[in-house]
Fold these 2 entries.
Entry 1:
Amino acid sequence: MPVRNLATPRVRTPHSATVAPTPVPASQRTRRADAVDRVDRPRVQGRSSAAAVAPKRLDKLVELDFPALPLDAHGHCAPLSLQVPANAIGLLVTIEGPENGYYLVDQFSGPRGKALVSDGSTARGTRRRTPQPFDSPNRSVAGMIPGTGALLVPNSSSASLCAGAWTLRVCGTDAQGNPVRGPVHVRVQIKVAPRLPRAGRLDLHLHFTGARGLTAAAARRSRDFKETLVEVRGIFAKVGIDLGTITYDDVSPRFQKQAIDGADSKIGKMFKTSTDSSGVNLYIVKELSLVDQGVMSAGPPGFSGGMPGPANAGTAASGVAMAMDCMRPACVMAHEIGHFLGLFHTHEQFINAADPIKDTPVEGWGNLMHPDEGSGGPNLTPGQVRVLLAHPLVQITR
Ligand SMILES: [Zn+2]
């Protein structure tokens, strides 16, 4: 899937007082894998044999909430202050705002002025030759779907978190790059683990549109589909991430054909049907298409609601979609899950940029995150696995 590289306005960095988070009520915190499932429709669950004696989840999430933040005339919110605890291994920022906006984090700085994301502006309003969000030590891109945005830290080899006071700023612009006024809702989830993680578990929530006869019940019986899942399970198991609970649900057949952009796109509406925040929500559709200057063309075989996607279900970015009739469906499925958990392509096809992870192969051959997801491979590097383990949806088990 293509990367949207949002330019941010050239403006002075505000030095106003920072905004502190609003406490998150227990009832609104991200539902954890070990929480009781509440669903209002029949569902089928599957569980890997490895997960039958599922190891305990070792990490904890600290959640901070910044509701109803106005954006100024430049599309910026006031700086948000947050305290990162010791032993933080990942931090996910999720932004939701009016649907005329594309949102991203354009500043994220820690103790002693350590900037992991920068828009390149300075206190005097001129740009130094410092990196902009995309080229920052921790890459930051705008949401793929209007009305949403997210950032995972770390997503590169040069980014890491440390305990202390951090400051965050969000920027929103419309499709033409003009500032939008919000308000936006910013959620920060900080993942804390007692030691450096070595292994994890990921739940998968499958949603079927009935495309090519695949309903929830039919998929459970389908040999082809089972083989695809076995292959996906193998790709992640090789790097220490087990697929845990897998659920099967049906969604409306009207979602079978999806344009992933354009005014008529309903992909965000489809992702909003997700209700389970304990894993990646994956939608099986018939076809994905792109709209270029009003002309519709065949799209990629898969599409992720974001890079990363949010850890909360029910947003316009809370899912991954794929068409099953592609070449190597297991690689496509795992590739899109990789995007959702924060990975970029080893190198981008349409802009001259390699991913920010040092140990990925330059040309990407054999790697799961090769930009042509049908011709990559099943491999993930230790640097990529570090990113996957940072996302709150991956439960740390070892
Ligand atoms: Zn991709």
Note: Residues 200-396 form a domain with the Collagenase (Catalytic Domain) fold (CATH 3.40.390.10).
Entry 2:
Amino acid sequence: MKKIETLIGYLSLAGFLSTAALALFAVGNLIFMAVPDAAVAASSEPAAQELATAPDATEGEDPEEDTTFLDGFTNPPVRTAEEQSSIEARVAALTADVEGMDYERARYHPLHFPPQAAQASNEECLVCHQEIMTAKPLEQSPAGVSASDTMAWYQTLATYGGDQQTFHYRHLQSDYAKSVMNLQCTFCHKGNDPREESPDMIPGRDLFSAASTPEFTLRKMVNPSTTCLRCHGAFPYEHMDGVEANWPEARLDFEDEETPNGCLTCHGEYGFRTNRHNVTYLNAHEIEDLATASSDTCYGCHGGRQWYRISYPYPRHVWPDMDEETPDWAIDRPTQSDPEYQRPETAQSE
Ligand code: HEC
Ligand code: HEC
Ligand code: HEC
Ligand code: HEC
Ligand code: HEC
């Protein structure tokens, strides 16, 4: 029965998600896994959603609780009043500009391309692209299957709340997305040639001069391997001494009522790779805070919503008590996050 639900979930996923996201799935060697029992059991707990809607309410509730580890992680700083008013001024100017602007001019607006794209705020893009925030998936597939009667396998994560939604909603608007992430349009959209959709033809740049890791891949608007893969790769347990199987199976040995997050057995205070998530597009504090309730928070971005057979080659930051010897798989790994997403201050206290 569960398998059937999974299959229906897949069909409806195919039916309801934007063709855009699907194009990426095809490229990404999508694997459909059977719904793991443990994940199903976990899905009956609505706790994650409640936590997600009240990110601050969980802090300091229990005076007995030692929050030193949590406090070591911070979210990216909010905008300063200056930054905010500069964005408001740009939005106002753009809004005035758009009045009577013809389609081609809007379509090739310099905000779409480097260098302006790198500085663009979501508000500026949304002057012209409100539809991104209001689009809704079909309630029923063309074949008559209702979205509310089906379940996609990623909906079995305890962190999932609400109905199936559009791709943009799930990354910019859902309570959960807003609590764990801080995504900008330009995190994914780094320029595009609307005519050829080739990274070698970005307006304002020499032809055929795209970088070896281009801003987007041919006929796509994004580069999946530098965006989606970060949070939708496989669970890299082959790099984890002591984890012998994928998480739905492995977690059975690590978790019980007292220990709802088995990842933290090894990745908690005094654990491995504790210097993590110190990037502008993640809310590092919120992630660790929510993760105290369930490993689905961690697993969600590290295997639980897996669209790819491979996992992202994460940078390997130095952590306290790190072994001096580098394992073979990590020899070519960077030791810092991508410069464009680095935060000056550290998210993990020493
Ligand atoms: C997490 C990555 C991501 C973020 C963040 C994101 N997008 Fe997208 N967007 C995509 C992908 C993927 C597609 C489909 C691309 C394709 O077909 O190749 C897309 C498609 C679009 C399209 C084409 C129309 C459509 O619905 O397919 C527009 C317009 C767009 N995005 C605007 C925006 C704006 C404006 C923002 C910020 C408010 C934004 N996007 C944020 C990944 C993202
Ligand atoms: C002045 C209005 C305007 C602004 C500002 C603007 N866009 Fe667009 N954008 C357009 C128009 C018009 C199109 C063409 C839409 C179509 O043909 O359906 C377009 C197309 C796109 C597409 C789809 C390209 C394709 O090949 O189909 C994406 C993705 C996109 N914009 C993202 C963004 C992002 C991200 C920003 C902010 C950095 C942004 N836009 C700012 C007007 C604008
Ligand atoms: C920074 C992490 C991150 C990145 C990058 C990212 N995602 Fe996600 N994605 C998430 C999270 C978290 C959720 C769950 C959101 C929720 O439960 O509301 C999600 C949910 C989804 C879903 C489920 C949608 C639904 O209907 O519920 C799809 C499909 C998806 N992502 C595809 C993509 C694709 C394609 C890309 C690249 C263009 C991408 N994601 C990039 C974190 C990410
Ligand atoms: C039995 C201990 C253990 C458990 C349980 C465990 N991990 Fe790990 N994990 C490790 C070790 C050891 C490493 C590798 C450390 C190093 O870089 O040398 C690692 C590495 C990682 C990496 C980086 C992989 C890479 O390729 O860079 C991620 C991401 C990760 N773990 C996430 C998780 C998540 C999420 C969970 C729970 C769903 C989890 N781990 C459970 C021990 C564990
Ligand atoms: C919203 C998605 C998301 C969630 C939730 C999440 N991670 Fe990550 N994780 C990422 C991304 C993206 C990176 C890469 C960040 C970078 O580029 O530095 C990462 C990096 C890591 C690394 C590599 C650290 C390093 O830089 O050496 C480890 C280990 C890890 N995560 C474990 C965890 C654990 C444990 C949890 C739960 C407490 C968790 N993650 C929750 C997205 C997520």
Note: The first helix runs from residue 2 to 16.
